[in-house]
Amino acid sequence: MTLPPLFLQAIYAHFAWGCVLAGLMVMLMGCWRTLAGWQVSTVALLSFGVCGPFGPWSASYWLGLCFQWPSALLMLCSALVVWRRGRGLAHLPLMPTRLAWVLATTGAVLYVDSVGWLPLGLYARGFGAGAVLLCLLGSVLAFSAVLFRRRRDVAMAVLMSLTLFAVLRLPTGNAWDAVLDPLLWFWAVGSLVRRNLLAFRARRAAPLSLSDT
Q1: If 0-12 CB within 10 Å is exposed, 13-18 middle and 19+ buried, where does residue 105 land?
Q2: Phi, psi of 31, deg, nearest 5
Q3: Exposed/middle/buried for residue 23 (C-beta within 10 Å: 0-12, 13-18, 19+)
Q4: 13, 1, 153: which is closest to 77 by C-alpha?
C-alpha cells in the first residue's frame, strides 16, 4: 500500500476544494443569470482565495472536516464547469448519462459493502494491486472515448484523474477515492433523476401538443 506524502495531500486539498467551490458557485449562479467571462474569473479567484489559507481561516479546512478530500474526478469536472462557462459554452449541470450510471451504481455498491450488508471488502481493495488494473482499464476506456470524440472533455477528466492517482496516489492512496466521493455521487444521482423527470415531462407534453394541432 502506497500513500501520498502529507504535504501533497495538504496542497491537493486546498487546490481541489478551490476548484469544487468555484464550480459549484458558477453552476448555481448560472442557473438564474448569464455570467460573463470576467465574472467567472472573479468567482474562481474568490473561491481559491477563501480556500488558500491554512488552518481554520480556510474554507478547505471546514470542507475537509465534513467531506475530507474531494475526488480528483470531482475536482476536474468542477474545473471543467468553470472553463466551459468562462468560454461562454454550456456548463455541465447534468452529468453524462453513462458516467452518471457508473458512478451512481458503484457508489451504491461501495456503501452497501461498507456498512456490512454485502461484505466484499471492495474499498480496502482500492489500496491493492487490483486497483492498478482497474485504473488501467478505466484509462483505456477514457482514452478510447477521447479518440472517438465521445464527450471528449469529460473523458479527459476521467483520464487525468486516473493518471493523477497512478503517478502521485492522490488524494488518499485509494483508487476509489480518485474517481468517487459523496458529492460526486450526489451529482450523478441528481443528474439521473433530473434527466428522467425531463423525459417524463416531455412524454406527457407530447400528446397534448399533438391534440392541439
Answers
A1: exposed
A2: -75, -25
A3: buried
A4: 153
Tens of pLDDT, residue by residue, the chain (213 residues)? 678 888 999 999 999 999 999 999 998 887 777 788 888 889 999 999 999 887 888 999 999 888 889 999 999 999 999 998 888 776 667 788 888 999 999 999 999 988 888 788 888 888 887 777 778 888 888 888 888 877 788 889 999 999 899 888 899 999 999 999 999 999 999 999 998 888 888 888 766 544 454
Contact of 184 with 14, CB cutoff 8 Å:
no
Look up residue 201 and give its three cell numbers: 415531462
DSSP per residue over 5-17, as a string? -HHHHHHHHHHHH
Question: Which three cell numbers mark 23?
Answer: 464550480
What is the distance between the terminal CA atoms of the chain, rounded to a whole angstrom? Answer: 66
Contact present, 153 and 76 (Cβ < 8 Å): no
C-alpha cell at 89: 459554452
Please state the φ and ψ torsions of residue 33, each to the nearest 5 degrees: -160, 160
Q: How far apart are alpha carbons 179 and 140 in whole angstroms? A: 15
| Strands (E) located in the chain | none
**Gap between the Cα atoms of 155 and 134, Å rounded:** 16
